[in-house]
Amino acid sequence: MACVVVLTGCGSVRQLASSAASSTAVISAAATSTAATTSPELSAAGALSSRPGLVVRRHAHAARIQRGPSNSAPRFRFQAFVLTPALRQLLSRFSWHPGCPVSLGQLRYLRISYWGFDGRAHLGEMVVNASAAQGLRRVFADLFGARFPIRRMRLVDRYGGSDYASIQADNTSAFNCRDATGSSRWSEHAYGLAVDINPIENPYVYANGTTTHPASDPYLDRSDVRPGMAVAGGTLVRAFTAIGWGWGGRWPAPTDYQHFSVNGR
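Structure (tokenized):
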């Protein structure tokens, strides 16, 4: 399977001068059918130059996987973009507000190939801290290569910033400026340094062994391993462990099987 790596190299993503703003956008516009609200059309601007080996671009909203030559397998795609004015406006309505521990300038909008439970390749979206983009490229390349299934991958803003609604839709997401569950401290999601994967298949389990979402009840039995689950030694956990991220499935109760973060919290 061919692999197209758009974001390579080491270090954090940096936005440089706008002199490259006339370059062409690299993603074709397309509509996405999801249970979430319709996303606003995002205007295309030019590609931004960066240090050698690291490509950061402004974008037009897109949702279609590009294929190689006829009959070839879908190619993995991963692209990181600085936030456009339209995205800044969207996040400022729902997932970000003044007083959050990171600025909008510290965040990046990602377009990521993934395999769905339908056995087809899709192109998802995610907002993360710029410093996390490089490691996540490796994670999702590994998951794509292994055909690990992900239900959907949309911004939490498509669900009005509601963590509950996003989980209910079994949505994989990252940035959301909120407190940690059951705490008054910032969640790692508020820094863009945590990702929740398949939250229905990988529930947050309270100390009494229950979970909030009824659809997750069948997944409380972690010994019955099914597609999309995070299990010790499995594809998903190995991919995040390889970049040094911690897994909430190793926490003492309450346990958060969906949760992966840069510092393990």
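The CA atoms of residues 48 and 57 lie 5 Å apart. DSSP finds four helices and twelve strands in the chain.
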